[in-house]
Amino acid sequence: MPRTSTHHRHLQKQLARAETYDQWFAAAEALDEAEGLLDWREGPGSDLLHEKLIREHLYAMRVHREKGDVAALNRVLQESLYRHLGELSNPELYTVARTGTTKLATEFLDEVENAMNFICDHPMPGVSEAHKLQLFQEAERVFGRPALLLSGGAAFGIYHIGVARALWEQGLLPEVIAGSSMGAIVAGGVCSRNDQELERLFYEPGYIHLEAFRWLDPGQIWRHRHLMDPQQLLHHIRSNVGDMSFREAAEHSGRTLNISVSPTRTRQKPRLLNALAAPDVLVSSAVLASCAVPGIYPPVTLRAREPNGERGAEKPYMGTERWIDGSVHGDLPLMRMARLNNVNRTIVSQANPHVLPFINHHESSGARASLKQATTSVLKAQVSTSLQVSRNVWSRSLLRPLLDQAHSVATQPYLGDINIQFPAHPGLYRKVLSNPDERDLAMYIRMGERATWPRIPMIRDQTRISRIFTDCIARLQAKLQQQ
């Protein structure tokens, strides 16, 4: 027994000290084997899945594919996806073993991929290649696609770079990315770069501009009513993001950038800026607005490219409106993301310092975790009710805007379908409003990677069908261009 315990601790140390995903996975697989969890993965199934029905559909897809019956294969594929997607997206399937879910779920996804590729690459009776492409595109719109949402978090938000790099290395970085506050800077940096430039961002982080924060002196703080220099922040944003419009960034990178901003006027709803909703708005001005934490930075007037499209030709966008930190009213714009970008699966990277203490138990189990969940739920409800009563009492007071902001912060959602969270360490809170040095940058990036690695199996499985749609559509478009 002592020998086994020593071996187990050794594997846990290897897991914690892994420098790459391959190293992490090897240690995780060894731990799963030592704890008997590989047997669970290899077992006949799980009570979370309808094993008998899934195996029937697996067999039917395989038989129709081997017979070359594309029409029948298409019918059973549609039924299978409709019947089983809810089961396969259950996060409980990924809470047992570190390295993935049951073999049955993997076999089902393997056969779905084989079926979709077969339909894509083989003729369908009475269906032209152009019509087939249209059918795939329509099916993809119905099915949806994943999105990565990066929260605010001041300096903690630098860890989002590590999250994005870990996903990029595994070919899992979504094309749709959203950000608020510091998450908007990282999202803007990723979505303003093509693949070659993005590789440099991830693997040569030394050229990243790090000087975002500059405190004003007491006299300036008294005069301007905010603590930090917005021009220094804007310089930092432009150094890392550039000065493209949302449309230009989308055309250059092939990715869809979404920036969440909040209005200063009461009873105005937050906005999600992207190439569809605000194509000519400059990304740098949207990111600046999304970083404008009340009291830290002043509100921002958005800037847009002039209709002639020339660089340097700018104008105010909605000039009578001013905007602040997107985290205030919509740190994670889940519903707006789904509507504008056809999102079916949200991957949330959460680093907000005021949120982390209340969500670090959300995937834990046991009596202690359940007690913490109940306590935080009650506390959140009480705070929400108190703030709502205060808003009604002080509805005509100068305090109403502050109460509205506090109510939004307390009641908005901070989690998505798949969650990656900053591993909060109390000692790091002193750095939350400090510029990182190169050692801090490397630390934050590594923390982001290590927080992401345990989610890779779940992300790979639950975004797999969307990625197959993308690949099939690209092949069909290439085939049509060659005709």
From TrEMBL:
Chain ranges of the PNPLA domain: 148-338
GO biological process terms held by the UniProt record: lipid catabolic process
SUPFAM superfamilies in UniProt: FabD/lysophospholipase-like
InterPro entries: Acyl_Trfase/lysoPLipase, NTE, PNPLA_dom, Triacylglycerol_lipase_N
Motif mapping: GXSXG: 179-183
Keyword 4Fe-4S (UniProt): no
Keywords: Hydrolase, Lipid degradation, Lipid metabolism
Any GO MF annotation of the entry: triacylglycerol lipase activity
Pfam families on file: DUF3336 (PF11815), Patatin (PF01734)
Active-site positions on this chain: 181, 325
Domain of life: Bacteria
Protein name, UniProt field: Phospholipase
Species annotation: Halovibrio salipaludis
